[in-house]
Amino acid sequence: MLKKFKTMTGKLALFRQIQYPERKKEIRGETYVVRELVGEDIKELLQVERLVYAGELPWTKSAFLSELYSRVKHLYLGILHNERMIGFIGVRILGADAHITNIAIIPDYQGKGIGSFLLGEIERYARKNKCDRLTLEVRLGNRDAQRLYRTLGFVSQAIKTAYYTEGNEDALDMVKFLND
């Protein structure tokens, strides 16, 4: 029966209801597929991380699995181009706060509007869940990401000293208020 269920749905989400149906999206003349991620996507998630972080894995397989199967309300989306995962984003809902846990776009696809699109999808999800703010942390040295977030309405809140264990780097805490 489980095998039959998996065959019917394509991916097994361990009995979690899929919140975000797969869809095609055109961004700057290119067609992408965006869909909710499940445990079977782990290898592709880790590959995206390796490409984004020069071979490093800030999030382990077990960290991703913990997020994907958490009982806390959450959504992880992947974006594919020509059947290859090129990026992903994750958010966790805690009360009125939608916290972006992770976003990564492989270097060849950065600057093409994909990050903005994914952030917009997460903002819609947050609003649907009656959140009044989106929050995230970003490396203090990642000026390009900070510029993108500010363009999309995020503002700086505070600096979290030595937030990132690798390199003992500080993080900038950012927020976007949604009650406008």
Short key terms for the protein model shown above:
180 residues; alpha+beta; protein-N-terminal-alanine acetyltransferase activity; single chain; 37% strand; 5 helices; Aminopeptidase; globular
What does this protein look like?
- The protein is α+β, with helices and mostly antiparallel strands and 180 residues long.
- It has a single domain (19-177), classed as Aminopeptidase (3-Layer(aba) Sandwich), CATH 3.40.630.
- It is built from five helices and eight strands.
- The chain has helices at 2-9, 42-52, 61-68, 114-128, 143-151; strands spanning 23-27, 30-36, 74-81, 84-94, 97-105, 133-139, 155-164, 169-177.
- The chain has an eight-stranded mixed sheet, sandwiched between helices.
- A hairpin with a 4-residue loop joins strand 7 (155-164) and strand 8 (169-177).
- The longest helix is centred in the C-terminal third of the chain and has 15 residues, at 114-128.
- The radius of gyration is 16 Å and the shape is globular.
- Mean pLDDT is 87; it is low at 1-14.
Short overview:
The chain has a single domain (19-177), classed as Aminopeptidase, CATH 3.40.630.30.
CATH class: Alpha Beta
The CATH architecture can be given as 3-Layer(aba) Sandwich
Q: What does the main sheet amount to?
A: 8 strands, mixed
Number of helices: 5
Strand order of the largest sheet: 1-2-3-4-5-6-8-7
Please tell me what the overall shape is.
globular
Query: Any idea what the CATH superfamily is called?
Result: Gcn5-related N-acetyltransferase (GNAT)
Into which percent range does the helicity of residues fall?
25-40%
Q: State the end-to-end distance.
A: 48 Å
At CATH level 3, the topology is Aminopeptidase
What is the number of E strands? 8
EC number: 2.3.1.266
Protein name: Ribosomal protein S18-alanine N-acetyltransferase
Organism: Enterococcus casseliflavus (Enterococcus flavescens)
Domain N-acetyltransferase: 32-179
